[in-house]
Amino acid sequence: MALVANKVVCITGASRGIGRACALDFAKYGASALLLHYFRDGATEEEIQSLRKEVENDKIQVVTVAGDIADPLTSAKVGIYVLDNFCQNQTHPAQIVEAGVKAFGRIDVLVSNAGICPFAEFLTMPHATWERTRQVNLDGSFYVVQAVANQMKSQIPQGGSIIGISSISALVGGEFQWLAEFLRSRCAPFTSFLSSHYTPTKAGILSLMQSCAIALGKYGIRANAVLPGTISTDINKEDLSDEKKRQYTVNRTVLGRLGAPDDVSGPVVFLASDLAKYVTGASLLVDGGLFVNLQ
């Protein structure tokens, strides 16, 4: 079924995890072009090239853009959306919007997915950890959403769909703090589970999508947030390798398993499609029933 037939789709953090699953599902459901952003180190370079080989064919064009999403110039057109004097009118090798418009003429869908979660305990957390997490997760989302929204406003036909990948932690505070306390009382001090720097950035993304829905609706641009629960990705691979941690997390869901990246990519495709043409400002939990399970 071609849910997103002929759509030009931009995905940040596309080389692995949820971003990669989104690229695969958009290709599966009819997108004609994929604009795939990645970080630009050895690992993500290899990953993005393998993804490109997997999805590119005579029906799907692929353009890849490398860069640090925390840098506003990674997202913007030169000198148009970036207004501070430090970077205005400077050239930059990796502008997402510039690359997409040059290759495809428009951008129909943005999935703002790039994010990090370097686990750290709140009281001893270096300020640099907070700064970097906020810069990548929240600042980076703002920059790419603003840049793509300006393009969606100016293109003909006008409009598009923006999906921000938030988290269940946007609703409940420290995503892993309840698990840390449980494990601390029974096993060992698993302080690496504390993520009080990560959760505010994900709450910010949820709020950003709600505000963008209001600000951009008049231009035919929809904005929604997807809130994953515990999804098995590289972000939590090390922590979930501990079987006690993993099993407790599984037992907290009502479906009895952790999520996989493609559990999230399906709802993302839905929100990008015309099936959701009257959905904006919404937040969609994809958590296997974790949030409602108070037992």
Task: Record keyword descriptors for this entry.
single chain; 295 residues; alpha/beta; Rossmann fold; 7-stranded parallel beta sheet
Brief rundown of the structure:
By secondary structure, the chain is an alpha/beta fold.
Overview of the structural elements:
The chain is α/β, with parallel strands linked by helices and 295 residues long. The chain has a single domain (8-117, 134-175, 197-233, 264-286), classed as Rossmann fold. It is 43% helix and 13% strand. The chain has eleven helices and seven strands. It has helices spanning 17-28, 42-55, 72-75, 96-104, 127-154, 169-172, 177-186, 198-216, 237-240, 243-252, 261-272; strands spanning 8-11, 33-38, 61-66, 109-112, 160-165, 221-228, 283-286. It has a seven-stranded parallel β-sheet, with helices on both faces. Strand 1, helix 1 (17-28) and strand 2 form a beta-alpha-beta unit. Helix 1 crosses helix 11 and helix 5 runs parallel beside helix 8. The radius of gyration is 19 Å and the shape is globular.
CATH topology: Rossmann fold
The structural class is: alpha/beta
Task: Name the average pLDDT.
Answer: 87
Cα distance, first to last residue?
39 Å
CATH superfamily: NAD(P)-binding Rossmann-like Domain
Percent range for β-strand residues: 5-15%
* Overall outline: globular
Strand order of the largest sheet: 3-2-1-4-5-6-7
Count of domains? 1
Helix and strand arrangement:
Blueprint (H helix, E strand, L loop, with lengths): L7 E4 L5 H12 L4 E6 L3 H14 L5 E6 L5 H4 L20 H9 L4 E4 L14 H28 L5 E6 L3 H4 L4 H10 L11 H19 L4 E8 L8 H4 L2 H10 L8 H12 L10 E4 L9
Parallel strand pairs: 1-2, 1-4, 2-3, 4-5, 5-6, 6-7
Family: Belongs to the short-chain dehydrogenases/reductases (SDR) family.
Pfam families: adh_short, adh_short_C2
Keywords: Oxidoreductase
